[in-house]
Amino acid sequence: MRRSSRSVTNNIAEGYGRFHYKENIQFCRISRGSLYELLDQLIIAKEENYIDNQIFENTRLMIMDCIKVLNGFINYLDNANSN
User: Fold this and answer.
1) pLDDT in tens, 1-36
2) C-beta separation of 71 from 19 below 8 A
3) 2-to-7, 14, 58, 69, 71 alpha-carbon distances in Å
4) Which residues, 6 or more positions from 64, have their beta carbon under 8 angstroms from its beta carbon?
5) Global pTM?
6) Which label site among 30, 49, 72, 73 has the fewest CB atoms less than 10 Å from its CB?
7) Residue 41, Cα to own-chain centre: how many angstroms?
């Protein structure tokens, strides 16, 4: 879970450093994949009773919020690239 959560910000930073919209978007998509990987690991942690329902739900909501924000950023970059 640590590796996938850190991968999210690492890929956003790497994409930003590329200075090209299409490359930045691609790294943001990789970040989004890492968020879904983190969500899967969270589900497994719940199924294996490592975490309770409250921790699961609070963390799931945070992950979904991050996905929404990242999708918005991807859309912004895509629109900026079109102009």
Assistant:
1) 999 999 999 999 999 998 899 999 999 999 999 999
2) no
3) 8, 18, 17, 20, 22
4) 39
5) 0.92
6) 49
7) 13
